[in-house]
Amino acid sequence: MYAPNIYPPAATTVYVGKIASSVPDEVIRELLEACGQIKKWNPVKEPSGQSKGFGFCEYVDGEGALRSLRLLNNLKLDGQELLLKPNTATQKYLVWYEQQKDEQRRQSDSCRRA
């Protein structure tokens, strides 16, 4: 019986937390952008405009989200380690995304050997 490719909806939102209050928002945005193209960066702020020390970054694709999780999680900034975590939908999508990349790599490798 044929089963079509079933894939989760694209979800690329990453929680970015434990941001030291002394680190400017521009620095966080530059670090996130170094990992991939950002669709939206939403730092959470107090009514006064002061940062609450966390935010949410949505990447254009899975590669940016994966890169940020690998490179920025536990990165020490001004004495505090960043905490990056995907939400459940993003985690499911990234698992599927990595499986697709692995499958493409295997197919590409088998074509080169043929």
UniProtKB/TrEMBL annotation:
InterPro entries reported in the protein's UniProt record: Nucleotide-bd_a/b_plait_sf, RBD_domain_sf, RBM25_RRM, RBM_PWI_domain, RRM_dom
Keyword entries, A-Z: RNA-binding
Residue intervals of the RRM domain: 12-89
Keyword Iron: no
Pfam families: RRM_1
PANTHER family reported for this sequence: RNA-BINDING MOTIF PROTEIN 25 (PTHR47334:SF2), SPLICING FACTOR PWI DOMAIN-CONTAINING PROTEIN / RNA RECOGNITION MOTIF (RRM)-CONTAINING PROTEIN (PTHR47334)
Name the UniProt record assigns to this protein: RRM domain-containing protein
Lineage per the UniProt record: Eukaryota, Viridiplantae, Chlorophyta, core chlorophytes, Chlorophyceae
